[in-house]
Structures are given as C-alpha cells and as structure tokens.
C-alpha cells in the first residue's frame, strides 16, 4: 500500500481532496438545511403571497418594503459533478440544492426582517436569482448563486 502512495502521489492527493471536499460540503449543506427547516417552522404563520392585495380602509396601519438576499457558493465537488453531468446531459442535481438553499434562505431573511418590524403579512413578493462569477469554470475562481426576495410588508391595526 505504501508503495502505491510513493508511486502515485498525485492520484492520492486528488482522491484525498475529493473526499475532503465531499465530506465538508455535505456537512455544511446538511447544517444549512437544518437551520432553514427550523426557521421556516418558526415563521410558518407569516403569510407571504405573490399577488397584489388590497385591504378595507382602516385595516392597515403601515406598509413598507422588505427584502432578504443570500449568496451560496459552489463547492468543488459539486462543480466536478456538474461538469460530469454536462458531458452526458440531464438534470444537474448538485446545482438544484444550491439554488433551493439560496431561495429559501432569501425568503427567510425577508420574513425575519418583516417580523422584526412588526409586520403580519407580506404581499406582492418577488424572487430573483442571479449567478455571481460567470467565469466559474476557470481555475482559481469560485462561482456563486444569489437569490433576493422582496415584497411589501403589512402591519395591521388591532
């Protein structure tokens, strides 16, 4: 076994880095999803709708813009999986969880901002997604995805 290490050090370094990248990325992603699920359960009562709304006169005390954004980086292992998927075609699952986490985190941050300011509902919510670092496939650059959620927070009269 030691002879293989000496004979192919680059191969073992690559395997070690892939294993390390996979393990660290999986742990970070699971930790983030746990945080998202916990915070979503806390904020489940705050309604968020994508439609514009109107309320009877005297029902709304005030309204204001709220927003939340999140930037999630692509780890090297997921990038490697995406490159392999691009060769054969099909769904790129490694990027789907990345976009899902960014969108859910952005909506949560928007809801948390609305709750801090006493709002009970968000109407006319919009969600945008953008890529940061378009040269992500080049060496020594990291690509990221950004999601921003914004809407009108409503504080009701009691």
Could you provide a short overview of the structure?
With 158 residues, this protein is an alpha+beta fold.
How would you sum up this structure, described in words?
With 158 residues, this protein is an alpha+beta fold. It has a single domain, classed as Translation Initiation Factor IF3, CATH 3.30.110. Helices cover 49% and strands 26% of the residues. The chain is built from four helices and four strands, in the order H-H-E-E-H-H-E-E. The protein has helices at residues 2-7, 9-42, 76-88, 93-116; strands spanning 47-48, 60-73, 121-132, 144-156. It has a four-stranded mixed sheet with strand order 1-3-4-2. Helix 2 runs parallel beside helix 4. The radius of gyration is 21 Å and the shape is elongated. The mean pLDDT is 87.
Order of helices and strands: HHEEHHEE
Task: Figure out the total of helices.
Answer: 4
The assigned CATH architecture is 2-Layer Sandwich
The pLDDT mean sits at: 87
**Class of secondary structure makeup:** alpha+beta
Instruction: Order the strands across the largest sheet as they lie in space.
Output: 1-3-4-2
* Amount of helix: 40-55%
Tell me the count of domains.
Answer: 1
What is Rg? Answer: 21 Å
- Find the CATH superfamily: Hypothetical protein apc22750. Chain B
Q: Under the CATH scheme, which class?
A: Alpha Beta
Distance between the termini: 74 Å
Strand segment tally: 4
Instruction: Enumerate the spans where pLDDT stays under 50 for 5 or more consecutive residues.
Output: none
Shape: elongated
Query: In what range is the share of β-strand residues?
Result: 25-35%
Summarize the biggest pleated sheet: 4 strands, mixed
Family: Belongs to the UPF0145 family.
Keywords: Membrane, Transmembrane, Transmembrane helix
InterPro entries: UPF0145_dom_sf (IPR035439), UPF0145_YbjQ-like (IPR002765)
Transmembrane segments: 12-29
């Amino acid at each position: 076994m030691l002879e293989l290490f000496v004979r192919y050090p680059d191969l073992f370094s690559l395997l070690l880095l892939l294993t390390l990248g996979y393990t660290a990325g999986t742990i970070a992603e699971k930790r983030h999803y746990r945080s998202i699920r916990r915070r979503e359960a806390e904020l489940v009562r705050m309604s968020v709708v994508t439609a514009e709304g109107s309320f009877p006169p005297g029902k709304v005390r005030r309204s204001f813009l709220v927003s939340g954004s999140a930037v999630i980086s692509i780890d090297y292992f997921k990038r490697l999986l995406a490159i392999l998927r691009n060769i054969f075609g099909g769904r790129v699952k490694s990027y789907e969880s990345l976009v899902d986490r960014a969108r859910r985190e952005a909506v949560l941050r928007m809801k948390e901002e609305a709750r801090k300011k006493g709002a009970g509902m968000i109407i006319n919510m919009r969600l945008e997604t953008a890529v940061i670092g378009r040269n992500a496939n080049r060496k020594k650059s990291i690509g990221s995805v950004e999601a921003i959620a914004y809407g009108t927070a409503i504080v009701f009269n009691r």
